[in-house]
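So, can you check what follows?
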Amino acid sequence: MSANISRDSVRSAIEKQLLESVRVKEQLLAECSDSIADMIELLIETVDRGGKILLCGNGGSAADAQHIEAELVARLKTERRAIPAIALTTNTSTLTALANDYDFSRIFVRQVEAFGAAGDVLIGISTSGNSQNVIAALKYAAQKGLKTVALTGGDGGAMTAIAGLSVVVPSKNTQRIQECHIAIAHIVCDLLEQSVMSH
C-alpha cells in the first residue's frame, strides 16, 4: 500500500461503498418493484408482437445500452432465438456525422427516425434524467408511435414527464444509480429470455 493509504483505510472504503450499494438496492426493491415489473411486461409484449427494443444514453449509460443490447441479441444464460434490440450508441461514424451535420442533441432522434417503428420500445438511460439528446429521442419516439421507458435516478429529472413508463433509482449517487441500472437490466433480460423460450 502507499504510504498515504493504509490497508485499514482501503478496507473501510470498500465496506462503506459495498454497504451503500446494498442499501440502495434494498430501497430499489421496496420502491421500484412495480415499475420494473411494468417495464418487463411492456418489453415482453413488444417482443411477442414482433417489435424491437431501441436503447440510448451517454457515457456510462451508453455502455449500459450496449450491454443490454448484447444480452438480448446474443444471450444471457440460455440458448434461444435472438431478441431484436439496437443500441443507438455504437456507430461512431453515424454519431459523429449527426453531431457534426446537425447537433449533438439530435444524435438519437435521427436514429429513431431511421430504425424505430410504431410498436417498438425506446429505452432512454440517464442517471440524472436530464440528458437533452435522450429527452429529444423520447419525445420523437412517442410522436412516432413507439412506447417509451426512462431508466433514471434521483428525482427522475425531465425524462419522467416525457416517458410513458419510468424506473427511478432512489439515489443521487451516480455510481449507485448505474449499479442499479445494470442490476435492473439483468433482471429484465433474464425474464425476457424466459418468455422467449416459453413460446
Q: What stands out?
A: Helices lie at 7-48, 60-73, 92-101, 109-115, 132-144, 174-198.
